[in-house]
Amino acid sequence: MLKRTSLLFAATLALGVSVQAQAQSSTITGAGATFPYPVYSQWADDYQDESGVGLNYQAIGSGGGIRQITAGTVTFGASDAPLSAEQQERDGLVQFPMIMGGVVPVINADIPAGELKLDGETLAAIYLGEIQRWNDERIAALNPELELPDTRITPVYRSDGSGTNFLFTHYLSQVSEEFANTVGEGNSVAWPSGVGAQANGGVAAQVGNVRGAIGYVEYAYAKQNDLNAVQLENSDGQYVAPSAESFAAAAANADWSNSPGFALVLTNQPGEQSWPITGVSYILMHKQASNAAASRSALEFFDWAYANGEAAANALDYVSMPDNVVELVKANVWSQIQADGQPVWAGAE
Predict the structure, then answer these.
(1) What sequence ranges are listed for the domain PBP (predicted)?
(2) Coarse DSSP helix, strand, coil percentages of the chain, rounded to the nearest 5 percent
(3) Which long-range CB contacts under 8 A does 308-313 form with residues at least 24 apart?
(4) CB 26 within 8 A of CB 54
(5) What gap in Å lies between CA 71 and CA 278, rounded to an integer?
(6) Which of 42, 47, 134, 276 has the most CB atoms in a 10 Å sphere around its CB?
């Protein structure tokens, strides 16, 4: 089981670093997104039990992960907002998808769990500060069967550079022209109302502590904090609940082979069962490895996770990458990570 206290409330989180790995000069170091931290944590524990090699991952947000891998202070960075192929080329990086999941709006209001329905425009109006009470007529129109409380709404947003921010604002910008024109999308944006919190764990804690709050977190954080998740209307006009199945439905038609640098965003995908804020978490590594042993150890870990991590991912309601995507990564991305003109990982030779 995950160590929830350290997982959800620490800004910087370290997974076990084995003495053996240090002796081999193959400590795996990474930093970035909090979105995939629960599954990376579980994989790290399982991998260390099996191999003796540990992982030190700092869950500091996608923006921090991009900065650290660009500066070369970690072996890999993790980001939920993909870098374009041009950005990767400029900084000498490669990018590959590691895991999929969903960003979920969660509330703290006197409304039965899982029963509140919102569409994109209404959710955007809440975050724009236009809808300020839970019994607002626009929310009531979507939920005629519910008795809504006359409670003030407090929107909670990510105050750090965050891929979760990117996915949430990317979605709202697609479904609300006003949101797109006034706030827009990005890892860090100027929110017109609400209160900020650091990382997925911070948003989950803030929503849990403030009556009337609404926030957005990766689904594992919503489940393991017993937060009340809403149903969202998707691009097919269907209200869907967040689940591994609805995340997988959104990813079903993703065209990975025609996405240069694997730069693909899965928000607002078609399909009756598709969750509209589905996201992919990416790994970033340097093409020219400054420490070949460390890069090789990282790729061995990711290879193990692709092959053995599905059960743990499913248990935490993430979605594993399809086999055809994994093969594309191994053939087209990992082979580019080299030292002295040779791939650092034997499987890429």
Answers:
(1) 21-306
(2) 40, 20, 40
(3) 308/46, 309/39, 309/43, 309/46, 312/39, 312/42, 312/43, 312/46, 313/39, 313/99
(4) no
(5) 29
(6) 276
The residues that bridge with 233 in the sheet, in sequence order, are 239
At 157, which amino acid appears?
Y
42 touches 2 (CB < 8 A): yes
31 within 8 A of 65, measured Cβ to Cβ:
yes
Minimal CA–CA distance to 312: which of 46, 25, 33?
A: 46
In the chain the domains, ranked by start, together with CATH numbers, are: 29-100+279-343 (3.40.190.10), 102-253 (3.40.190.10)
Kindly report the number of other CB atoms within 10 A of residue 152's CB atom: 13
- For the record, the structure tokens of 258 come out as 């025609």
pLDDT tens digits along 110-160: 999 999 999 999 999 999 999 999 999 999 999 999 999 999 999 999 998
What pairs with residue 118 in β-bridges? 232
Residue among 218, 211, 215 at smallest CA distance from 191: 215
Residue type at position 133: R
* Separation of alpha carbons 90 and 95, rounded Å: 13
Question: How confident is the model over 242-295, as pLDDT tens digits?
Answer: 999 999 899 887 788 888 999 999 999 989 999 999 999 999 999 999 999 999
Is it the case that residue 15 has pLDDT exceeding 70? no
User: How far separated are the first and last CA of the chain, in Å rounded?
Assistant: 36
Contact assessment for residue 78 and residue 88, using Cβ atoms and an 8 Å cutoff: no
Comparing CA positions, the residue from 87, 73, 91, 92 lying closest to residue 29 is 73
